[in-house]
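Q: I have 937 residues here and want to know how they pack in 3D. Can you give me a structure?
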Amino acid sequence: MSVWAGLRPSRRAVGAAGYAAFVSYSHAADDQLAPAVQRGLERLAKPWYRRRALRVFRDESGLAVTPTLWSTIADALDRSRYLVLLASPGAARSEWVGREIERFTAAQPAERILLVITEGECRWDAGRGDFDPERSTAVPPSLLGAFSEEPRWLDLRWARQETQLDLRHGRFRDAIAQLAAPIHGRAKDDLESEDIHLHRRALRLAWSAVAVLVALAVVASVGWTNAASRERLARAQELAARASASIDKQPLSLLLSLESLRLRQTSEARDMLLRGLLEPRHNAFALTGHTGRVSGVAFSPDGRTIASASQDRTVRLWNAATGAPLRQPLTGHTAWVRGVAFSPDGRVIASASEDQTVRLWDAATGQPIGQPLTGHAYGVIDVVFSPDGRVIASVGDDQTVWLWDAATGQPIGQPLTGQADLNLLFWGVAFSPDGKTLASGDLAVRLWDVASGQPIGQPLTGHTDQVRGVAFSPDGRVIASASDDRTVRLWDAATGQPIGQPLTDHASEVWSVAFSPDSKVVASASNDRTVRLWDVATGQPIGQPLTGHTNGVWDVAFSPDGKVIASASDDQTVRLWDTSTGQPLGRPLTGHTDSVEGVAFSPDGRVIASANLDRTVQRWDAATGRALSRPLAGHTDGVMDVAFSPDGRVIASASDDQTVRLWDATSGQPIGQPLTGHTRRVMSVAFHPDGRTITSGGGDGTVRLWDIASGRPIGQPMISGTFVWEVAFSPSGRVIASVGDGQTVRLWDAATGRPLGRPLTGHTDEVRGVAFSQDGRVIASAGNDQTVRLWDVATGRPLGRPLIGHTGGVDGVAFSPDGKAIASAGADGTVRLWATSTGQPRDRPLTGHTSGVSRVAFSPDGRVIASASADGTVRLWPVTIDGWIRHACALANRNLRQAEWDQFIGPNQPYVRTCPDLPSGYGAPPDAPMADYSHLD
């Protein structure tokens, strides 16, 4: 939907010489972007027989030579329906932009100003009911006081870093569609659909022309081949456009991007696939496969398996670490499966269904256990095991709660019933941690004695609508309830008294609640499509809502270790979230308690080591992202860098405690005594290619060499004279490079310790990172001046222009194993990839870290980048196109369904399984052929 959805076009007649929009901008700031915006507006949804879809005025293109400049501009403004304002600090200072705004708002409502931020900030002050003049650096003064409420605006700040902006650029096309929608007076999706329709029509006309020409041409076969190639290219571009239009509908957008790539590797297809992978909302672990709403979710007690219940009549099991489905769905229910639960020992799964039954399943095999539990007169809404696993409670639409013997499946006593005159259903049900009390919800929360089946005390009242979910805290002290009245309430389990005020931030019905294992946090799931976290002690919200689901969220659950939240939604997915950050799981490697400063792959690529300011080194399984044993502890201050020996047997770590330590990479045990000699913090460490020597650089302005066998220093320190941030050996081991506060790169003879030539100069601020290419001929350096620079090792001369794109200092740099790519780590929180040969950026920045990135490293096969960040995480990023495809297929967890194929690809096109690694049945018809991506580089 457009950010200006709901605006209607002006009824004022434009006339033959009128304009649909007037582009107001600062020439100094946006002389490159403004023409691209104008062209995009004019060409989107343009019929082939018309020159443009919209008539857009921009002074450079719309003005003839005239002595009455302002009069001409004012006349164009008077005849324009909309004002497209490219807002930036330059525009805010521009006298011309100010006059254009004043002229336009004198005759038109401010709602016809379409605000596009290209640089700077735009902040609304709700208390003032206006833009904050101090913080809104992009807003011209003439716009202050113009709006009666906060306007929606389009963020194009990212476009300043792009070199090719046209409608073939997926993200730019999507932005133009949002901007054009209110001008056309149509919804964004409708507009893009029309554009695709017109594009197809043009293709059909073009095909007709080609057919005639081919029939008349002498070289008919050559003509047909070229036309087929063009048609394949056009289809690929069309699918990329459809992927952009469907970016809010995952995994559909990812699958359409993959289909576009299958047809032709275009820049649009690559951009859309990477965009889908990097979208925070969509990069969540979305477990997809259900074909109906997902209403229940539960973790196994060991946290390794997730079970989900769905309207598609199935229960599905998932690997909690990878998101991969485990075996086929559990089938047998004949109606919507509303709830699911694991037994405390993890061996049994219970499911509750609208078919009036509870079913038990063997968690290991997926086979049903015994006969269905029958007794409810209507559908069963939810099911739960007692803490000792001996009793099952189920709640039904018949206003009863049934207790069952888990071993025999027989009912225990009579059903528990509430007040029939309430005309409300029991909904949620929960056992207390000691198993003696059961809680259920209707208009109130009711407590029951499990042994006798009798109610305990008075109902807990306060909610004004149906109670949908109840939960006991693991310590048994608090009860939480979720209600259709949009609130969560907390109750003292001992007294039944309310605790604090209701938790009221949800915008729609709250359907489920769950406590963290430590009882300190409550998670709530709502029909407003969000999950929210609350501090139990204070009742205050924790962080921002967890957003990403595209429909109401039915259920929420914590993993047994409390690190992951799972949510089940009407959008047919289960999503996983990092509890500590609230971020969707992509998934980062978490466990450190402070900034991660260094990261390295083992030579075989199986292990990742990370260095942290929490004084530890952590090892991770590169395949699963799981921590290997406990952190390596021994440093008495933050660890700044880490490196593996060439044979992978030893890890070296550099620390603020002025030492270098060696560790056995397999056992994690320290080797020998710490290497001492630096008189200030040690910032970097690197192994010689022969594995016998280590070099280190520190804040004392020295570079030192160490003999690994003895732990003794080799020769005298190399005096840099300035703080040394990083050191690196050349692949031959003959040269050491060091960088630091002196704004230079220094080269040293590793055998003699003497400097080689003059320092390499060009950076205008301190240099934080350095790396040699695999052939040793090129050095890359990362600077706090926001650039990466390349140098010829033999001559010391710079190679090409600086690599510019980061919006903050660059702290780390690495070459890919084949030398074709460079990765850089930015204080702006991004990882960027560059083509070594051209210095041009490859694709869009890799985003996901919530703080600056300090180091990057390539895996030995070059397929994965690991990044270390001040946000306390290590993230893994697939680099190659085949890695993107595998990652996209893992996130999508299905293929295009036949109906989607017919709609988006074409009913006459032979079906192809988009994700080859997924078995048939995951959206694909039986025996569907697999996609061929062999043409991709």
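Q: Anything worth noting?
A: DSSP finds 13 helices and 61 strands in the chain. The first strand starts at residue 19 and ends at 24.
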